[in-house]
Amino acid sequence: MRSVLVVGAGNFGAATALHLAKEGGCRVTLVDSEVLPNPRSASHDVNKIVRDDYPDKLYMRMLHKAMPQWRNHSLYKQWYHEVGMLRADNTDFGENSIAAYKSFGIRNESRMLPVSEVRQRWNGAFATTNLDGLSHVLYNPNVGYAEADKALNDVIKAAFDAGAEFLLGRVDKVIFGPGNRCIGIRLDDGEVHMADQILLCTGARTGAILARSAPENRDMHVGDRVTATGAVSFWAKLHGAQRDRFANVPVMKNCLPQVKGESMSMLSNGTIKFNCDLCFTNYVTDPATGEKMSVVPSEPVLQVWTRSKFIKFFEGRARKTLDGLYGKEVENVHVEAYRMCWDASTPTHDFLISPHPHSENLYVATGGSFHGWKFLPVIGEYIAAMMDGTLSQEYAERWAWDKTSGDGHSANPTYQVIGDLQEWIATEDLSVIELYEPEEPVSVGDLGMGTKTPAGSV
């Protein structure tokens, strides 16, 4: 029986571990540096948008398979909330999205609402939203959001229930045998674990891992194929009459340059989460190669949820987004916590799901580019097909290590790099930023698993 090490338990890794374990025929070990779900993972979050309105038909086809699972499958449906979504966008996204639904024959009730109607509906939650320059806003009542950490938690638990094992440890590097063939991983405590196939679902950390693994072999490095990028999320709590007004409001994505942010509707406990719809790099000198590389910062306060005090630039940017999304309605709302969410971005915002062309038995599934999470119910099937060599040509070419062509498209055009983190933290005292401690931490016991060591360990 073949053995598979899946490194990284975010949505790509967890979904693949579940798919492989359910299929059988292999021994699957899910490797992560933290008790799961990992709070540093881009997939571990309060909530995420779940939508299928992609003008890009390749991704829309995938979501046509995923949405019924979000709505009906026991693993996902309790965490999915179909509250609808508004999109304020001065491009032709809305018209293209509606046309894509029609071309696929997908039943959908999307329509363009006059701004005046948006302001009047939903208890006036959007009465003073910044919609300057727009006459209409796209309203899609057939999408919504999912409670991300809980959904990811259940997928991981289902993978273990199906027979996958868990290995707790931080991966230092992948290791190679004769002919540059990948044979396993080494943890930072020196332990080596062997397997027939090694899949890196390591997100924004992929570039650094491959650089450490083969510092002199540039063929192994990601180069400009994938860049570690961060984005800022934040959340607040609503109370009393204001909380009542926001019950079941749609998700709002405001793409206007003066706002550029998203509101994820409101959870039952009054929590409402937001994203600043932009990203940034973090270029430092990589110790393995001596070259500049964008990497995930080592400081915990730049990876996980923190208390309300944060970096001044991002506090200001968050406030601008919050005020643009809801206007006067939130002028007295206090931001409770911030988080830098790190993901791997590709030049076209397509995923990078490919065998590594320069190392047999090494596979990469990364490049979520801030839009990969919603594919949680189906992405494991595609990654497993890639590993088996059965992924369809259309997807294999779009997600290839080396693309044969670039048509200038962007699969997720709203997240663009605005600068480098080092510019904004140079004068900050990070030591005064406090980590946010969740009220109900998840333990290994909650997942019904133990830390296991796979066969082939040395």
How would you describe the overall organization of this protein?
- It is a single chain.
- The chain has one domain: FAD/NAD(P)-binding domain, CATH 3.50.50.60.
- It is 24% helix and 26% strand.
- The model is unreliable at 440-458 (pLDDT under 50).
- The longest helix has 16 residues, at 57-72.
- The strands form 6 sheets. Strands 6-7-5-15-16-17-14-21 form an 8-stranded mixed sheet, with helices on both faces. A 6-stranded mixed sheet has the order 9-2-1-13-23-22, with helices on one face. A 3-stranded antiparallel sheet has the order 3-8-4, covered by helices on one side.
- It is α/β, with parallel strands linked by helices and 458 residues long.
- The protein has helices at residues 11-23, 57-72, 93-104, 115-120, 148-161, 206-213, 240-245, 312-326, 379-388, 393-398, 421-425; strands at 2-7, 26-32, 48-50, 80-81, 85-88, 111-114, 136-140, 144-146, 165-168, 171-176, 182-187, 192-194, 197-200, 227-237, 251-254, 261-266, 271-276, 279-281, 283-285, 292-294, 335-345, 352-355, 362-366, 417-420.
- Belongs to the MSOX/MTOX family.
- Its cofactor is FAD.
- This is FAD dependent oxidoreductase domain-containing protein.
- One of its GO terms (molecular function) is saccharopine oxidase activity.
- Keywords: FAD, Flavoprotein, Oxidoreductase.
